[in-house]
Amino acid sequence: MYLDINSKAIDFTLKNKNGEDIKLSDYRGRKVILYFYPKDNTPGCSKEACGFNENLDAFASKNAVIIGVSKDTVASHLKFSSKYNLQFEILADPDLEVLKAYGVWQMKKSYGKEYMGTVRTTYVISEEGIIEKVYKVTRVNNHVEKVLEEI
User: What is the pTM of this model?
Assistant: First the structure.
């Protein structure tokens, strides 16, 4: 189950690409665009990450930061971030704790096979740590622009 709009965002601490602890509550006072994605270096996830990266100044002008989370490892994130010169935090959740807490670890279906995986989802969290919007992203095209426009 996804977290509800107007509920408090669940705080967490995860490692970034450099192995440093990043805590969600450290961003209080700024809007957080918290997006969950399935896998580093896949076409859709790369496109989404690059879209956020290309619009960092526009998000910053709205007092917003971008944080990406996937089940990939710190080492994978370092390669992914370096390959695309990503200038925002991407956090590793290999134990699935945050993915499950935010309701994005779900049953998926592809080519008739069912499996557990990350459902691409973006949460907009207010400066006070309250969930303002939940995007259940089915298509990467124009997603970043839509989030930017709506905040």
Answer: 0.93
